[in-house]
Amino acid sequence: MLQKAKEILQQVFGHADFRPVQDQIIKSVLEGKDTLALLPTGGGKSLCFQIPGLVAPGICLVVSPLIALMKDQVDGLKAKGIKASAIYSGMSLREIDRVLDNCIYGDYKFLYVSPERLKSDLFLERFKQMNINLIAVDEAHCISQWGYDFRPSYLEIAAIRVYHPQVSVLALTASATPQVCEDIQEKLEMKRPNFFRKSFARENLSYSVRLIENKLEKGLEILSRIPGSAIWYVRNRQATHQIAKALYQMGISAAAYHAGLSMEDRNQKQEAWKTNQVRVIVSTNAFGMGIDKPDVRVVIHSDIPENLENYYQEAGRAGRDGKKAYAVLLANENDFEQILERAALVYPPVDFLRKVYQCLANYFRVAVGSNMLSSFDFEWNEFAQTYNLGILETFYALKVLEEEGFIGLSESYYSPSKIHFSVDPSRLYEVQIAYAKLDPVVKIIMRTYGGNVFSEYITINESKLAKSLEMKEHDLIKSLKQLEQLEVMVYDQRKDKPQITFLTPRYDAGKLPLNFNRIKLRRELTLEKATKMVAYGHQNQICRTQFIQEYFGESADKGCGICDWCISDRKSKSPETVEIKLKNKIVETLTNHRELTERQVFDTLNLPASEKNLKILRLMEDEGIVNQLASGKFTLVTNG
Fold this sequence. Notes:
Elements: H1 2-11, H2 22-30, E1 35-38, H3 47-55, E2 59-63, H4 67-79, E3 84-87, H5 93-105, E4 110-113, H6 121-129, E5 132-137, H7 156-160, E6 169-173, H8 178-187, E7 194-197, E8 205-211, H9 215-225, E9 229-233, H10 237-249, E10 254-257, H11 263-274, E11 280-283, E12 296-301, H12 308-315, E13 325-331, H13 333-345, H14 350-363, E14 374-377, H15 380-386, H16 391-403, E15 407-410, E16 418-421, H17 425-434, H18 439-449, E17 458-459, H19 462-469, H20 473-485, E18 489-492, E19 499-502, H21 516-538, H22 544-551, H23 564-573, H24 575-593, H25 598-604, H26 611-622, E20 626-628, E21 634-636
Parallel strand pairs: 1-6, 1-7, 2-4, 2-5, 3-4, 5-6, 8-13, 9-11, 9-12, 10-11, 12-13
Antiparallel strand pairs: 14-19, 15-19, 16-17, 16-18, 20-21
C-alpha cells in the first residue's frame, strides 16, 4: 500500500518523494493504527491524511477549526478532480443536508467538518451511514485544556468514534508540549498510538531578538540587509497600514493585511505578495494559515506574540525552501511588561462574561432556549461599541465564551453564492409558465450550469449571469430571491464577513453554566505561557533554537550555530579570530591609503574608534606592523 501511496504522491500531488517522517506517518495510518503526528509548520501535514484517504476505499473525515484552510484544501482537491466537501458555520441546514447525502451516496473522498458540527443530530445520523476510512484531526492541540488554543467542541471527537469503532484516528498538530501530547492521546481515546515527531529545530532558520526602541528604523535596516520576500507581524490593524506606508515611502513595496479588509482586497494583496509583486506583507496574525510560500527570507515581529506556540508557527513561515532565512523579534522592556499585563486580562470577571453573553442575545434577538447552531454575520468591534463594552475586554470575553463552548467565532472568509433547484423539472416548468419574468433567469441557469443544479449546490456568479441577461445585478438577485420564495430554489447569497455561531440553545445569562475551575486554570496557564515568551526575549544563556526545542519537550544537545546567541557565543570564545580579522582589515586599509589618522582608519572601516579597537591598533604598533608618524598618522612598516 505504501507503493500505491507513493504513486498518488507523484501523480496527484506532483511531489517526487515524501518529506522526512511523512512516509512513516502514512504507513502507520494505512496499517490501521491510531497515530499522533507532531509536524512543525511547513512539514506537510495535510498529505498525511489526504494520501491514506485516497488509497483506502471510503471517505476520510477531517476535523478542523480553520474555515479558510478547509475551503482552500477542498478547492485544491476539487482542482485535482477529487470529490471533497466541507461543513462549517454560515451554511444553511438544507445545504448541509445535501452535502451529507453526497458523502453517503456520491463517492466523495473527503468531508471537512468544523468541530461544533459533530454533536448535531443531522450530522450524527448521516455519519453512521458513511463508509469512513479515517478520522483526521487537524490542530489536535485544541482538544487539550493545557494547550494554548483549547476548544471544548473538540471533546466531541472521541464521542463519534463509537459509530465506527474499527476506524483509526490520525491527530496532527504543529506545536504541542509533552503534556498536551499526552492529553491528545487520552481525550481522543487512542489505542496504543504510534507517535511521530519531527524535530522543532530548523537548520536554516536563524532566530534573533533585538532590544531596541525604534522598531521601524531597525526593521528597515533588516530589510535592507536581507533581500527577498518578507512578513512583518504586528498586533493591531492600524499598525499594518502605518508600517506598510512607511516602507513604501522608503522604496520598499509593502501591503497591509488584516481581517478588517474586504475579501477582495485580501485576496488581491495576498496574490501580489505570493507572486513577488509586493515584497513585504505587513499583517496581524490573520495572515499565514495555509500560505505555503517557500521563499520567505525574513519574518519580523515588532509586537510580542502571546506565547511561544504562536511565535514558533509565525516565525516558521520563513525559509520553507530550506535556504537560509531569519526570524527577528523586535522588543523593548515596555513590550515585556505589556504582554504580562495583557495575559492577566485575558480571562475577564464572570459578571462581565455574563453581560457580554446577554448583549449578544439582545444584539441578535435570540430568545432563551432557541438558536442552537444558528450563525450570524458578526463584527465584534461594532458590537462592543454598540453596548459600550470596551473593545479589548469584549474580544477576550468572546474568546472565553468560545472556549467554554457557548459560541463559535470564525474570521471573515469568502463564501460565494450558491443555488440548488429543490423541485423536479416539471414543477420548475410550471413556475416558468406562471411567472414569465423568471423564465429567462431559469433558462440562463440551466444553460450555464446544467442538470447538476437539481442534484447539488452550485456556485454562481451573479455579475456574469446578469451580464448574460443584459440586466442589472440587483434585479437578478431580486429574481433569485423570488424563486426562493416560491420554494423551487435554495439561494444562499455570498458572505464575506466574520461569523458567530450559537453552539448551544441560548441560556439565561444569569444561569450561564461557566466552568469556574477551568477558567481559573486557563488564566494561570495563559500567564505562565506569557512569562515563558518574555523569558525567550530576555534570555542570554542558551541557543534560541535549543530554548524552543526544550520548551516543546525535545532534548537538544547542541546549538543551531546561526542564531544571535550562538554567533555571540562563538565570538566571545574566539576573540583572537576577531582580532586577526580586524588586524588584516587595518593592513588592507593602510595598503590602499598609505597614511591615516586613527579616526580615519576606523571611519574607513565603518567601525567605532572604541577602546577595544584602539587597543588592537596600539598592539599592531608594538608588534612592528604599523608605525605612528610625527604627524600622528599611521602607516604600514615595510621590510627593508
